């Protein structure tokens, strides 16, 4: 691989990692906004500020609260900002965001006492957090693996 090829590959990697951070950010923004829309969020009138007693369900599946929706909005804004800032910020967002969501998954799976459930996390939400965390970390590590020569080129 020539020096010019390396420069072009690094530029392509930069664009992909930034797009991944922006995409995750957009998904989180969408989830945060949809969590505040009656109809899309069932039981909207029973939404609590925080805690396990919130009766609101995003798409009728995922228990949400005002705090939960705000967390999604914050993660969304952070993803968009990281993508705009550059490759290092996008990688950090995907790594630390993924770790956060994996920890949130463990938190949701391990909660025995509902009073400690300040962000409503039900089984569906816990498994979604697992998928998001794994997806963010995977995106971070897989994007650029081909550039670094760690993946085969299949055409």
Q: How would you classify the quaternary structure?
A: single chain
Overall helicity: 55-70%
Number of strands: 3
Structural class: mainly alpha
> Could you spell the SSE succession in H and E letters?
HEEEHHH
What does the radius of gyration come to? Answer: 18 Å
Walk me through this protein's architecture:
Keywords: Membrane, Transmembrane, Transmembrane helix. The chain crosses the membrane at residues 21-44, 56-81, 93-112, 124-143. By secondary structure, this protein is mainly α. The protein has one domain (3-142). 62% of the residues lie in helices and 5% in strands. The chain has 4 helices and 3 strands; from the N terminus they run αβββααα. It has a 3-stranded antiparallel beta sheet with strand order 1-2-3. A hairpin with a 3-residue loop joins strand 2 (56-58) and strand 3. Helix 1 (3-34) packs antiparallel against helix 2, helix 2 packs antiparallel against helix 3 (87-110) and helix 3 (87-110) runs antiparallel to helix 4 (123-142). It is elongated.
